[in-house]
Design goal:
Rossmann fold, 6-stranded parallel β-sheet, 25 helices
């Protein structure tokens, strides 16, 4: 092949990434899988088109800094506190379990103590980015298991920071022939950098971003500049670009514009990370990967089965239902891009050989691909394994929010699934007409908000057969769902059809009302057993026309204002 210019080479790599990315999208895989495949295909074992090493390495390093910046900007210690001790206990418990048994498995496979330790620590990291994306696509990020998963993922992110700081300190110490002075120096520099970030957060972050927000493009440029600058400082003092980039994110995490910054930088992060994985693939030999097939299979099974199992055990012991523990546990059934970055740092420091990076890469490919399907079809998997999960559930499940809900045997003419703005408005108007209504939502905050408004509310998921069977269906005249379904992402399950099927199977003989924002769905929902299909926009338009045409308005009851952040769920 003739020598390619760097620009032509990058163009070919981007075309290859677009093609494989499209294939990955058809297979419902996250882009990280396609990116790694691009790197392997473009590497020396296949097409061997990667020659612009310096340019790709530069883009790769910037991508890592932006990635960790975005993780840092999402770090919110208050979230862990609000979710309670379960986030810390589950997060640390999973990390300790995976690291300890991963280390023993590595020794059993003959990897050596240092390599086994690196691989074991790498296996403890789960991909926050992939998990949040999948849960958001399934509209489960606000569910109890989604909130708990997000909490212990933040704990894992804090462990990542600690591991990278320790690794950087060890690397500096080794580079200085083991003298402790360099380790003390890097730790001192780290403390100074953290102190500087704290001062920036306290006195400058919010007023500065407020001024820059008048020009959104400038705000984004400032965020990138901050990430690159602190990453460069971190690299210069021995902490590494990774830790510096994360601290840059933390510096802006308390500002009111962090979501805007994160949203605008996400596409840039995905673009730059492509070059990290291309660079990774260019250094990997497929024959080298093949030499670790047995180890990769064993470690992959350990991550896919062991990580969810330990989460299920810990949450069950703490008093959570087996379903909540199972769904939360599935979110840690993979390793993350940080695992590859962590081992790559070990390779650059000379602690481990490149074949260790090949082993972890294979485990990453297998677990990320498999766990994507596991999370996507989590509810179906639960139904399969539910008969064997009873051992993981304590009697009474004292930590589940629905235990403090109203007495289940009370009679309710209407059972309403979904306590977002529309659902809460329905419940309040029924209550104003002295009609007892029981609201159901799988967002604990929505349940608490409804109870504060005087609505009887219970925590639960309308797609959970076990929960639906516990509802007082025999005394209800109507079962209503205010949850429209938005078909996005990798999951296309329609909770409305599931709810109709489950309630009928549980013996409900009353009438069913469901909500739809798409008129074309009305016929399908009616065939599925819905007696009434509510179309909020159409119904509101009909009522508005009546009023505009002179129809006498009905007397209105004063209704409390509903919080705008409410989210329909069920």
């Amino acid at each position: 092949m003739p020598m390619l210019t760097p620009f032509t080479e990058l163009a070919l790599l981007l075309m290859l990434a677009a093609g494989l990315g499209t294939l990955g999208l058809m297979l419902r895989q996250p882009l990280i899988v396609a990116f790694i495949a691009v790197g392997l295909l473009a590497g020396p074992s296949a097409l061997d088109i990667v020659k612009a090493d310096e340019q790709i390495a530069l883009l790769s390093e910037l991508g890592i800094a932006v990635l960790l910046f975005l993780v840092g900007i999402k770090l919110d210690i208050k979230l862990i506190r609000s979710l309670g001790i379960v986030s810390i206990v589950t997060g640390l418990g999973q990390v300790v379990f995976t690291a300890f048994f991963g280390y023993l498995i590595g020794l059993a496979l003959g990897l050596g103590h240092v390599t086994s330790l690196y691989v074991a620590v790498a296996l403890t990291f789960s991909s926050t980015i992939i998990i949040v994306k999948l849960l958001s696509d399934k509209r489960e990020i606000d569910a109890l298991h989604g909130q708990i998963a997000l909490g212990f993922l933040i704990v894992q992110d804090l462990v990542v920071v600690l591991a990278m700081v320790v690794l950087s300190a060890i690397g500096i110490g080794a580079g200085d022939h083991g003298h402790g002075g360099s380790v003390i120096t890097v730790l001192g520099a780290g403390i100074a950098l953290v102190a500087a970030v704290i001062l920036f957060v306290r006195y400058a972050a919010t007023p500065l971003t407020e001024r820059l927000a008048h020009a959104p493009e400038l705000l984004v440029i400032f965020a990138i500049a901050l990430a690159a600058a602190i990453a460069a400082i971190g690299d210069a003092v021995g902490l590494g670009k990774e830790v510096g980039g994360l601290l840059a994110g933390v510096a802006l995490a308390s500002t009111p514009y962090r979501e805007t910054i994160a949203a605008r930088l996400a596409p840039l992060r995905d673009f730059l990370l492509l070059f990290f994985f291309i660079g990774l693939g260019a250094t990997l030999d497929l024959t080298l990967l093949g030499s670790h097939v047995t180890g990769a299979v064993i470690f992959s099974l350990f991550v896919l089965i062991g990580n969810p199992l330990i989460v299920l055990i810990i949450m069950g012991a703490m008093g959570y239902r087996k379903r909540t523990g199972f769904l939360a546990g599935l979110t840690v059934a993979q390793i993350s891009e940080f695992s590859l970055i962590f081992v790559a740092m070990g390779v650059s420091l000379g602690h481990v050989a490149e074949d260790a990076l090949g082993l972890v890469t294979m485990v990453g490919l297998v677990t990320i691909a498999a766990s994507t399907y596991m999370i996507t079809f989590s509810h179906q998997l639960y139904l399969v394994f539910e008969p064997w999960l009873g051992v993981f559930e304590r009697k009474g499940t004292p930590r589940e929010p629905h235990e403090s809900a109203p007495q289940a045997q009370a009679g309710y003419p209407v059972i309403l699934f979904g306590l977002g703005r529309f659902g809460t408005a329905i419940a309040l108007r029924l209550k104003a007409r002295n009609i007892r209504v029981l609201g159901v939502d799988f967002n604990p905050q929505a349940v608490r908000r409804a109870r504060a408004l005087g609505i009887d509310a219970e925590f639960g998921d309308g797609t959970d057969p076990e929960f639906v069977a516990t509802l007082p269906l025999s005394r209800a005249d109507w079962l209503a769902s205010s949850v429209p379904v938005h078909v996005t992402g990798v999951s296309h399950d329609d909770a409305r059809f599931t709810l109709i099927q489950l309630t009928r199977a549980a013996g409900f003989e009353g009438r069913v009302a469901v909500t739809s924002h798409n008129p074309s769905e009305t016929e399908a929902l009616t065939r599925a057993g819905a007696d009434l299909v509510l179309e909020p926009f159409q119904d509101a338009a009909d009522r508005a026309v009546e009023l505009l045409c002179g129809a006498q308005a009905e007397a209105r009851t004063e209704i409390p204002e509903i919080a705008s952040e409410g989210r329909a769920a069920g």
